[in-house]
Amino acid sequence: MVSRAEAQPYRGGLSQWLSGRGHRLALNGFMVIVLAHWAEHLTQAYQIWVLGWPVPKSKGALGLAYPWLVTSEWLHYGYALVMLVGLWLLRGGFVGRARIWWMVAFAIQFWHHIEHLLLFIQAQTGTFFFGRAVPTSVLQLVFPRVELHLFYNTIVFLPMVVAVWLHMRPNRAEAQQATCACAGTRAPALSVA
User: For residue 144, is it within any domain?
Assistant: First the structure.
């Protein structure tokens, strides 16, 4: 049975919706995007290390269909930005231990975004940093690009997984602080003025 508060039209802003009623839907949508991105990276890794393709030809599934998209920095920077914004917008629904892990993922993604911003600026201006002949990020000075971005995606993804795990299994104090119903507990009713 639907309670009277739940039957009322929603009158909060986007931030409140993302932290409350819409948190699970938005989180699921965000995780679909994250997993699709992982699939692309794993496909590229398979192409390189199992099929033995040279790195420039190993573009993942999307890159096979649209090579121009994958070789431009637009897609990479756009995804880094979507990740950063998604992590920021969804943070309000996380409390306690889950919030700490979610914000760890955000902090790492912030740096990952800076790295992609550097690559994007270089690609758009044709001015390459660090005396290189191609766009190069800071940590690419030490690590190859494919391995570096697999590493970045891993160290952003793992704290996200821990955050979601803890979010779905809150302790008693966290369940009382919850603003969403992701864990199967009913979120506090919003007052309708």
Answer: yes
Up-side HSE of residue 79: CA atoms within 13 Å toward CB? 20
CB atoms within 10 A of CB 188: 14
pLDDT tens by residue, 47-65:
999 999 999 899 998 888 9
Rounded to the nearest 10 degrees, what angle do helices 145-168 and 23-49 cross at?
Answer: 150
The answer to the question of residue 104 being in a domain is yes
CA distance 24 to 2: 18
Q: Is residue 135 part of a domain?
A: yes
Provide the whole-model pTM.
0.86
Helix intervals (H) in 20-72:
23-49, 60-65, 67-71
CB-neighbour burial class of residue 3 (10 A; exposed 0-12, middle 13-18, buried 19+) = exposed
